[in-house]
Amino acid sequence: MAEPAVFSCAARLEEVERLAAHLRRCGAALHVDNVAMIDLELALVEAANNIVLHGYAGRGDGTIGLTVDRLGDVLIMELRDGGVPIPSSVLSAHLPPSLDAESGRGIAIIRSCIDEVGYSQEGGVNVLRLAKHLPKPPAA
Q1: Which residue from 33, 76, 92, 132 has the highest number of Cβ atoms inside 10 Å of its Cβ?
Q2: Which DSSP category does 87 fall into?
Q3: pLDDT digits (tens, 9 = 90+) for 41-77
């Protein structure tokens, strides 16, 4: 894939599977191994669910954009949305939440699956960047 693969869907829980299916297609085209794909898909689904439930508060009137790209041995996913920004306290928390915590479990799951998590706002658009270092293929 010469250009990053871009996909978007409505910000509704029932649409999150379409994002995951797009990631699986990209992963196959980019030769990502199955173990890494499990982590990538789990992180994507958690992030997309958080966008729907917290960013758009379940309204279903927004969109989620997903860009998937591979740069060497790193797979990068960028999710874009126009919902409520992620509170800085959520991203800066370094301790996992307690099991009975009301929030924070999603970002903890994402961090356990992904090597680098970045967040910015660009022109009122939230951009969540998730990067996963991929294992080197076995020598031939």
Answers
A1: 132
A2: P
A3: 999 999 999 999 999 997 878 999 999 999 999 999 9
Give the sign of the dihedral formed by CA 22, CA 23, CA 28, CA 30. Answer: positive
Please state at what angle helix 16-29 crosses helix 34-50, rounded to 10 degrees. Answer: 150
Residues 6+ apart with CB under 8 A from 23: 37, 40, 41, 44, 66, 68, 77
Q: What does the alpha-carbon distance between residue 125 and residue 78 come to, in Å, rounded to a whole number?
A: 12
Q: How big is the chain, counted in residues?
A: 140
Q: Considering the entire predicted model, what is its pTM?
A: 0.88
Catalogue all structural domains in the chain, each as residue range(s) with its CATH number: 5-133 (3.30.565.10)
Long-range CB contacts (< 8 A, 24+ apart) of 37-44? 39/113, 39/114, 39/132, 40/75, 40/77, 40/113, 40/114, 40/130, 40/132, 42/109, 42/113, 43/77, 43/109, 43/110, 43/113, 43/114, 43/130, 43/132, 44/19, 44/20, 44/77, 44/79, 44/130
Q: Tokens representing 42? A: 């789990």
